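User: Can you predict the 3D structure of Purple acid phosphatase? Sequence below.
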Amino acid sequence: MAAGAHRRQMAVFLAAALFLAAVLLLQAANAADAGVTSKYRRKLEATVDMPLDADVFRVPPGYNAPQQVHITLGDQEGTAMLVSWVTPNELGNTTVMYGGAPDRMDMQAQGIHTRYDYFNYTSGFIHHCFLKNLKHSTKYYYAMGFGHTVRAFSFTTPPKPGPDAPIKFGLIGDLGQTFDSNATLSHYEANGGDAVLYLGDLSYADHYPLHDNNRWDTWARFVERSVAYQPWIWTAGNHELDYAPEIGETAPFKPFTHRYPTPYRAAGSTEPFWYSVKLASAHVIVLASYSAYGKYTPQWTWLQDELANRVDRNATPWLIVLVHSPWYNSNSYHYMEGETMRVQFEQWVVDARADLVLAGHVHSYERSHRVSNVAYDIINGKSTPVRDPRAPVYVTIGDGGNVEGIANNFTEPQPAYSAFREASFGHATLDIKNRTHAYYAWHRNQDGAKVVADGVWITNRHWMPTNDDGDTTH
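Assistant: Sure. Here are the predicted structure tokens for Purple acid phosphatase:
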């Protein structure tokens, strides 16, 4: 072969090799960037409500025994607790005794009560009592029902807010009262946590004929085994609206607001649906997807002031935002319903270097990479989310187990911003270790409680704003 021909052949071979190497590198890069749509499929059986005579709905024994006991923070920092319960037969005593031992409940507080009517339903006597002057990281015992049937419970207050104060959150949304709901709550109890960040949609009473408010009572008895012993931080969802003009019910959120108070006044809010709390090293902001949030509205004004003046990342490094309708969702179920709130608030959340935005609403599980879509405007056409280390991780966890069933219609192809998604029921935990690191884990109900189906170490956006997308376990 002539030398010139040989050189030409070698040049062609080298060019082909370089092209193949470039293709392989591109494929590898794309594979590394691609999200995971889990092939795991939950059980095939339908989602079914537990029967009304199930033990989890049992009315406690004794005349006028307090039931549906639940607690949430009574102030912003955990030195007060709001205790709520229902007495079914008569008003009874509104006093709560509390103290540091079962036989030393030497403090007392007087509560208030309320009742409401909803179509053909009249509630029991709903009590709310404010326990104050609590010490951080301290176990308290409390009791109510004096004069008839006394019931006693306990809780442990959160650590004093501080940059390295550890805390473990349970993350639950859209729970309902099915057999799957019971599996979710049982798995969370097995994994343990100090408090629950609840992402909205509680009882699903509005799913039943005439918004059967008896289902508010059964749900509250069902979750009492957890929420009577640790604070749940409430987010209002669409199933809390209970707006039903066809049966004459035109006051939104009536059952929810009578039953589930929040410490909104301590947070400078004007409504119970948006507020904030400080738990250990976390500053948790609760937003309302179904209250007005346009420019100059009370929620818009409050959030602007909250981020500018009340968030202190030196004191509480972890900034967590709770909403109900997700801002990033690649499921056809409720697709883009959170878009207007995202457009309104995403720039603020990115500028504030929030660590996580947690949502419910979509009855499946999805976790995003750190992305933002704040560059887009009506003329520049930049409408694709981009990787952004300043941005939060978005988690959709509306997979508690409600009777409406699983959302298994993910859009294809999986968008680049989506890291992991699966059509299963479950719960998650967020275990904050210190100011820099937290371990996030999602657990599907079909596994053993301790099995992590999706896990990732998250580094804090204020103290360690590095890219932390890669350290995952599936």
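The two ends are 56 Å apart (CA to CA). The first helix runs from residue 3 to 33.
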